[in-house]
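Work Package 4 report. The design task specified in the project plan requires that, given a folded chain encoded as structure tokens, an amino acid be chosen for each position. We show below one input record used in the internal validation round.
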């Protein structure tokens, strides 16, 4: 089956000089050109490939003749030095190659001849140094890479203005592949288990990160597991043995304290780390103890960096306030930052309002209850029935506010109701977020007063300890959780999985560093920075380092191949995905354009998906968007695909219309070599007329 590959789509886009874009020359490059017109002062119009340019010649030449030229200067005008005699256009390629290499004083090796021939066929400007570097690459090619593939990669390196060396060559080569990322990550995982030369701490961190990549829905799985486990330990019908097993797993994952037992797990939970620090900070600030406050501020700063419920802008604002207070520890600055922290970290959430009821005075109760009612009514994660039940319990608190013992009992009842309500929401709408961008599982963590600064790790650990449990009861719970999650797989699920996987891989690692992101700890835990750290370890074996370099090359290649050319933009992503034991690889290539104000033009785009699916095997989806009209073509060899896809068309049409797109049609075809060649020719001819779409199949 012949599908369009990234090599055919991207690396071979350069047909003619620099793919039809304006040719940018630099000093030292050698080009083949024809003198089209002569002007006074040795100025000439020179044609290079399909482009014409004005240049100053060092010696007079005759119009109509073709020569090899070397760029001797680009400022203030293009200056060309002739390095060959006149060439006959009909001369065989071998003769042209020989003449070029002689002119540049380069050896007549097989590798150099291949490079020179490729240069001539594609009107590609190269310097002598670049050709020498390319020759070294060609001489060391493994059997698995053809000369044609290597030459295309070398051409791409020149176009991207990247140095021609092994690491950039491997990056662009690996980045252009549409399969094999999962295999490389699997090899790395095996080596982590076998290689004793890796420091234990580094090994554990890498294994944890690969586990997150292997299970992109671990957070949602952990959320559902948490809800089911809380149901068990709250149930009067569950056996004591099952309750104790669940309790121990919650302790091992760090969600509830080690000291908790079946009687106090929901009544003796310590305040969250942020809450404890803020309480201490507030008291020390009021006492004017600047030294203690400075120490506490440093702790809060670290806690805030780990807090995944805060946005980068919120973290940056807090970070700046704390830095100012630490460098200038006046009472005014400390009190200002304390107020800032309390405002940001302790908003009037359902959890904070409910917790405040335990110790509230009658006057405070009068203020808190309306706020709590309003927060529940506005909570989009709760059903109407759940809201009604909670509001009835709040009314009971209002009725009993004069009797402190009764209030404690009813507040506890409300606390348990909230936990149950958000637990049900976590099970049946695991991907849904409320107006504050929080999910039901995060709400549960807040109600439990768990340390919400590290929710991701807590849920991932819960999945890990549950998977390792030898209890049949726990394994059945895990199986039901995965079945429940599998039934809810939709577009939002895949969006979540792709985003989570890309974040865990660390594809935007360098970009985040350049943004001076405040959450450096979270960034450094991603796979890419960890692998870069592994390469610096002298003790690690060369075998493990080689595989680590392959993984990094894949990620770098995606970045190199993603870029912009004026208003045209291209994005390449390879995403290894695993859903409930089934592995797949999704490669995405997006081509579109930017508006003048720098935003993506959502009216025009072309997107290619390359999927390796367990049931229908290799599949290519070609989606074209023109004036918000969407056409989808699916290439696959499965004869039953048309009947399977028919009931899904209406869902796709409805989903697109909700975003103001119109579906023009879904076409399912078998892919053939002839089709590929036809499409490639059509696309080549119409590239300049596709309103910003620059791609060929």
């Amino acid at each position: 089956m012949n599908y369009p590959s990234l090599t055919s789509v991207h690396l071979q886009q350069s047909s003619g000089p620099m793919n039809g874009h304006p040719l940018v020359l630099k000093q030292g490059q050698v080009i083949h050109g024809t003198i089209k017109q002569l002007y006074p002062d040795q100025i000439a119009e020179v044609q290079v490939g399909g482009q014409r340019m004005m240049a100053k010649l060092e010696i007079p030449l005759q119009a109509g003749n073709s020569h090899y030229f070397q760029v001797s200067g680009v400022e203030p005008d293009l200056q060309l030095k002739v390095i060959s005699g006149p060439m006959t256009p009909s001369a065989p390629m071998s003769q042209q190659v020989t003449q070029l290499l002689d002119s540049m004083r380069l050896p007549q090796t097989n590798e150099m001849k291949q490079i020179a021939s490729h240069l001539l066929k594609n009107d590609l400007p190269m310097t002598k140094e670049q050709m020498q570097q390319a020759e070294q690459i060609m001489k060391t090619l493994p059997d698995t890479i053809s000369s044609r593939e290597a030459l295309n990669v070398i051409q791409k390196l020149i176009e991207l203005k990247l140095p021609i060396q092994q690491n950039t060559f491997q990056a662009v080569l690996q980045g252009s592949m549409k399969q094999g990322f999962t295999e490389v990550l699997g090899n790395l995982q095996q080596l982590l288990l076998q290689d004793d030369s890796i420091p234990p701490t580094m090994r554990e961190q890498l294994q944890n990160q690969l586990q997150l990549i292997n299970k992109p829905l671990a957070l949602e799985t952990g959320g559902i597991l948490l809800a089911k486990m809380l149901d068990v330990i709250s149930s009067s019908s569950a056996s004591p043995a099952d309750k104790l097993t669940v309790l121990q797993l919650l302790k091992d994952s760090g969600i509830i304290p080690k000291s908790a037992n079946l009687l106090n797990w929901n009544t003796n939970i310590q305040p969250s780390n942020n809450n404890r620090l803020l309480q201490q900070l507030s008291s020390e600030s009021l006492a004017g103890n600047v030294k203690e406050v400075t120490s506490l501020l440093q702790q809060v700063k670290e806690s805030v960096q780990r807090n995944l419920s805060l946005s980068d802008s919120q973290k940056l604002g807090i970070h700046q306030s704390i830095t100012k207070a630490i460098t200038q520890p006046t009472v005014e600055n400390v009190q200002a930052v304390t107020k800032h922290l309390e405002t940001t970290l302790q908003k009037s959430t359902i959890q904070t309002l409910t917790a405040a009821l335990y110790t509230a005075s009658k006057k405070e109760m009068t203020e808190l209850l309306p706020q709590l009612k309003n927060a529940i009514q506005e909570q989009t994660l709760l059903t109407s029935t759940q809201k009604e039940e909670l509001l009835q319990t709040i009314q009971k608190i209002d009725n009993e506010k004069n009797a402190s013992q009764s209030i404690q009992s009813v507040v506890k009842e409300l606390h348990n109701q909230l936990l149950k309500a958000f637990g049900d929401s976590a099970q049946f709408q695991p991907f849904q977020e409320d107006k504050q961008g929080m999910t039901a599982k995060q709400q549960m963590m807040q109600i439990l007063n768990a340390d919400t600064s590290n929710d991701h790790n807590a849920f991932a650990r819960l999945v890990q300890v549950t998977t390792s449990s030898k209890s049949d009861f726990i394994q059945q719970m895990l199986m039901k959780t995965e079945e429940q999650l599998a039934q809810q797989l939709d577009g939002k699920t895949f969006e979540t999985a792709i985003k989570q996987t890309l974040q865990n891989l660390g594809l935007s690692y360098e970009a985040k560093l350049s943004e001076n992101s405040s959450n450096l700890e979270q960034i450094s835990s991603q796979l890419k920075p960890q692998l870069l750290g592994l390469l610096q370890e002298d003790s690690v074996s060369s075998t493990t380092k080689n595989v680590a370099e392959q993984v990094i090359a894949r990620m770098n290649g995606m970045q190199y191949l993603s870029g912009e050319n004026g208003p045209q933009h291209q994005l390449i992503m390879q995403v290894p995905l695993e859903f409930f034991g089934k592995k797949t690889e999704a490669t995405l290539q997006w081509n579109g354009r930017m508006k003048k104000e720098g935003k993506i033009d959502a009216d025009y785009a072309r997107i290619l998906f390359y999927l390796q699916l367990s049931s229908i095997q290799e599949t290519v989806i070609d989606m074209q968007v023109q004036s918000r009209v969407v056409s989808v073509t699916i290439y696959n060899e499965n004869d039953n695909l048309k009947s399977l896809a028919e009931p899904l068309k209406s869902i796709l049409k409805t989903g697109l219309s909700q975003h103001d797109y119109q579906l023009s049609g879904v076409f399912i075809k078998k892919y053939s070599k002839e089709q590929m060649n036809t499409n490639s020719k059509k696309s080549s001819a119409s590239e300049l007329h596709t309103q910003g779409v620059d791609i060929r199949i």
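DSSP finds 28 helices and 13 strands in the chain. Validation will be extended to a larger panel in the next phase.
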